Amino acid sequence: MAIKSTIYKASLQIANMDRGYYGDHSLIIARHPSETDERMMMRVLAFALNADEALAFGKGLSDEDEPDLWQKDLTGAIEKWIEVGQPDDKRLLKASGRSDQVLLYCYSSTCDIWWKQIAGKVERARNLCVMKVPSGASMELAALAQRTMQLQCTVQDGQIWLGDGEKVVQLELITLKDFNPQR
């Protein structure tokens, strides 16, 4: 019998001054049995940074045809495809062809090695943006994981604070590849 996903719930308050977005979200997060706290909290961070009423968690690890998060328009077309971790170049290029924008948040101490191997292969994906979360920060985010969470996220001038009232993790994303609308 297969092990089922564990359900986590988060109440997330967002004040993103860089985007001019302010909102409260009630998240239900299905954590795959093979998923770590660090990866799950990276999905929560990705949600907080791209929050929108149309943004939703995909099946991620459970389905290779769905991202960790995505945002669709009213016709069902994919506006944003959001991944966390270190996917292969084929997955990123496929996502680039299916979506208006592809955002990747990589993390872990091996992120730089992975990026050196994959950067040249995904350079032509002009709608791909790759952001690195410092590994220390991603591990600190993992410490916030609880079955029920009350989280606040503030973004200002590229600085990000995500916390639960007792502990706050401060981080700044490092851009490895930005969108390139020019061919």
Quick tags:
183 residues; alpha/beta; Restriction endonuclease-like alpha-beta roll fold; six-stranded mixed beta sheet; five-stranded mixed beta sheet; 11 strands; 39% strand
Task: Tell me what you see in this structure.
- With 183 residues, the chain is α/β, with parallel strands linked by helices.
- The protein has one domain (6-177): Restriction endonuclease-like alpha-beta roll fold.
- It contains four helices and eleven strands, in the order E-E-H-E-E-E-H-E-H-E-H-E-E-E-E.
- The strands form two sheets. The protein has a six-stranded mixed beta sheet with strand order 3-4-5-6-7-11, with helices on both faces.
- Helix 1 (37-50) crosses helix 4.
- 30% of the residues are buried.
- The model has no long low-confidence stretch (mean pLDDT 94).
In a nutshell, what does this entry contain?
This protein has four helices and eleven strands, in the order ββαβββαβαβαββββ. The protein has helices at residues 37-50, 89-98, 111-122, 135-142; strands spanning 6-16, 21-31, 55-57, 69-72, 78-84, 99-106, 128-132, 148-156, 159-163, 168-172, 174-177.
